[in-house]
Amino acid sequence: MSLTVELPAEAIRRLQAEATRRGVSIDDVVAELAAALPVESSGPRRNPAFVGVGASEHGISDGIGESLADGFGRD
What total of structural domains would you count in the chain? Predict the structure, then answer.
């Protein structure tokens, strides 16, 4: 398969320098970089770690409505 990708000049310079250092083509360097990336998953998408923050049964989130009703945070 063939693909054309437009890259900034600096990225091309870095790829060329690495290819020259290794004695391989830019294609080989890009293929190696791509191989190090995670494989596309067909499974369910994972939620970010912060999802569910404040959902604790024992935290302040359960009583926040009461605290606000009692005037918490008012000057």
Answer: 1
